Amino acid sequence: MIRTHGLTKRYGGILAVDDVDLDVREGDVYGFLGANGSGKTTTVRMLLGLVLATSGTAEVLGEAMPRHAGRVLPEVGALVESPGAYPRLSGRANLRVHDALGRGRRSGRAGRVDDVLDRVGLGGVDERPVASYSLGMRQRLGLAHALLGHPRLLVLDEPTNGLDPQGIHEIRDLLLELHAGGTTIFLSSHLLAEIEQLATRVGVLDRGRLVIEDDLATLTRPTGRTYLRTRDVDRARALLDGQVEHVGEDHLLVRVDDVAELNALLVRDGVRVTELAPERRTLEDVVLAATVAGSDRIERG
Fold first, then answer.
1. N or C: at which end does the chain have fewer Cβ atoms within 10 angstroms?
2. Domain 223-280, CATH 3.40.50.620 — does that match?
3. Rounded distance, CA 123 to CA 59, Å?
4. 264-269: long-range contacts (C-beta < 8 A, 24 or more apart)?
5. pTM value?
6. Is the previous residue joined to 66 through a cis bond, with omega within 30 degrees of 0?
7. Tell me, what's the pLDDT at 291?
């Protein structure tokens, strides 16, 4: 659905995006992560033909961009940075204009507009001009714009920006519903928690370079060590001498072949076990290990 090779963007002496190779497959929810200023939005704008690459290539839906934007963009729903709208028109009127400029037939326009407004939580919106909307309402309206043409591919840049926790939850459920219906989603964000709940594949930008691209399940699979939480840390450590790889205040990380056998050994020796489970790396662990610490960090959210 999206493929880039050596995609690079310079602004004078600033290297904003550096030799990025993306591979977004049909059916993905692709989480595109990076700190603010890492090059995410510039990359998204190049994919959509809004910014020309300095070098490298980009394909969207199998077509070169921006050369074939006329064929590609009608199949793509996009929300990039601040949603654009005519500020003096209502949200509903804005969507009608957007639909008229697209491929939708006039006869079904009102129904299509009402449908997407309902889906993004603006079904009860009145005729107030968009200039009076809150940031969260503008964000919902931008998502409605993106959904209006029933796109094969959604490209969303920080779609939950400005939403309260309930709004974030509603948009998350909507995106999961769209994905279940066959829509491929490219979701750019700096919020690890949101991507971890939505994504099937993840790419991470760090200062313009793609430092991670893999399936989320692969990135967060068990490490091969067992997490043991106990109030008897010293006793467990002595009992498992040679197998302990890390000791914390109330837990150990041990490497064993048989967890059931480990549990039986601990119980026989009177060690009080409160948790015993395979150790898994979180997405936060993966990202922080792969990126360079700086003043603008990725937020947990």
1. C
2. no
3. 35
4. 265/239, 266/228, 266/230, 266/236, 266/239, 269/235, 269/239
5. 0.84
6. yes
7. 86
